[in-house]
Each structure stands twice: as C-alpha cells, then as structure tokens.
Amino acid sequence: MHPHHSDGSAAAPLPPAAPEPAPWRRITVGTPGPEFEARPPGQYAFDFPDTECDGWSSPSLTLRFASVRGAKHRYYRQPRQDSARAAVHEPTGSIAFAVADGVSSAVNSEFGAVEACRAALERMLQLLSQDQGQLNFREVAQHAAERLRELAQWRLDGKEPEVGEVAGLYATTLVAGVVRPDPAGPVVELCRIGDSGAWVLDSPSGRYQPLVGSKTGSDSLLVSNEVTPLPHVPDPLECLSVRLTAHQALLVGSDGFADPLGDGDGLVGALFAHHLAAPPPPPWLAHLLDFSRETFDDDRTLLVVWPHAPAGPR
Fold this sequence. Notes:
The protein is α+β, with helices and mostly antiparallel strands and 314 residues long. It has one domain (51-307): PPM-type phosphatase domain (Phosphatase 2c, domain 1), CATH 3.60.40. The chain has helices at 71-75, 109-128, 137-155, 163-170, 255-261, 267-275, 282-289, and strands at 51-57, 61-68, 82-89, 94-101, 174-180, 187-193, 197-202, 207-210, 238-243, 248-253, 300-307. The strands form two sheets. Strands 1-2-11-10-7-8 form a six-stranded antiparallel beta sheet. Strands 3-4-5-6-9 form a five-stranded antiparallel beta sheet, covered by helices on one side. A hairpin with a 4-residue loop joins strand 7 and strand 8.
C-alpha cells in the first residue's frame, strides 16, 4: 500500500537504494606479488603518504600524475622515496613538471626527491617568465642541487657539507621539463639526471618510444650510462626536445614503473596503453600504478601529459 498525501493523492514510491560500490580490487599483472597490509613508515615520515595523485587541464594540455609506495617499503616500514610535482605557467599555458626517485642508499632520500622537484619547478617557472622563456636546464639542475646542499647544511647544524655528505643524505634522480602548447603540436623539453625514464606513448599503436636511455637498451633519443644522481650535475647534461602529435602522450616515470614496463610490448605495456588512451581520473591512475606483479616491489611514479583540442564556442 502506497502512502498518501494529505490531499488524498498517492505519493511517488521511493526509488530503490543505489547498490553499494564494490571496493577496487588490486590489479594483478601475470603472477601477483604477496598480499599484506602495509606497515607504517617511521614516525617522522608523516609528510610522505603512501599514495599521491593529481590531475587537471589547461586550455590545450591535460596532466595526471600518481606516486605509490612499493611493496618493499610497505613491508620494511620505509616511506615512499619517489616524488612528482607539476604546475601550469599561466602566461604561456606551459606545464612544468619534475619527477624524482630518491636513491635507496641515501639516509633521507625521500626529502631529497621532494625538494629536488620543488626547486626544479620553481626555477623553470622563473625562467619561463624571463628571457623569452628560454630554459637553461643546467641552471635548473644546479638550483635543485643547491637546494639539497642547503638541506644538508641545515641537517649538519650549519657545517658546510661535502658533496659526498649531501649525496649520503639526499641523493635522488631527477627528470625535469616543460610541455609548451604549439599550433603544430605541443613541444616537450626535458633534462634527466640518473636513471628515471621518459617515453612517448602512441595511442593508436600502443607503442612506447623511449626518449632517454633505458636499461633494456631500446632505441632512444638519448643513450647514456650516466646514472650518478643529484647533487652531482653531469657535464654534458642529458637534454632533449620532441614534438607530440594529437594522438601521443608524454610519460615520465621512476624505474619502479620503467622496469616492469620494459620495452612496452608485454602485459604492463598493454595495461597502461589501454588505460592511458584518454586521461583517467587521477585516483584511477594511482590504482592502476599500484598493480601487483611478482618481483617488482619498488616505489612507482608516473606523470602523463596529453594534448587536447581547446573547446570551441558553444
């Protein structure tokens, strides 16, 4: 019997309750790794959450990034040592970005990674606003290295640190760069210190073009055996520029992503090519990046930039 209003008319029946959404199950790729509840990192590692993600769009570019703690660090009570940061440069519409992978042998590389990203981003945004926006990546890298030196000096109660002392505390890889909008297709400019990776993903074919030398020895625009991390600034510094088409995306990732990706023609490459054909919600990218596959237990960070056509008048 349906309830009635005071005027005698029948009230509309209540709609059925929406079903409870099922929690996301961790994605497995091939043979999964062991499942366990993550353990807390050290009590003073509260600034480095297990998982971070971000995502937004400018008029012509879309950005997503995510960073997740690896199984090894979850088990041994260590913080995530990867970091990523990105910002839009308002006057030009460019996206400046940085990805860093703290070296595990350094005592507090999680601080090194996040501070290297912050310093690189600050300097790139400054340079984009002056000198016709020309980027001097050596200056960017030296600014990040100087930030690590200042951090070490503070840690050592004002004592001037040796380079080895800075590295022992805060050594980190760094990929820093910008994506500039352009009518002919966005232009990517970046530099690399250490062994983090960068690729162009071609959506129609699902193929990955490595932009920097990889551990698998694939063809790339830059091939180098130089893996010495910040605070060392190599000479020459690895730098490159590449233009994206409308159906390509820039990927920048730590080796926690690069190692299971390999040359991109396996299960991990297929998984990400499918889900990155269009920008996913930022939490979904983090969930995707947290896939389980045996032997791959490092922190994973991935930053992706897609071109998109600006919305026309309605």
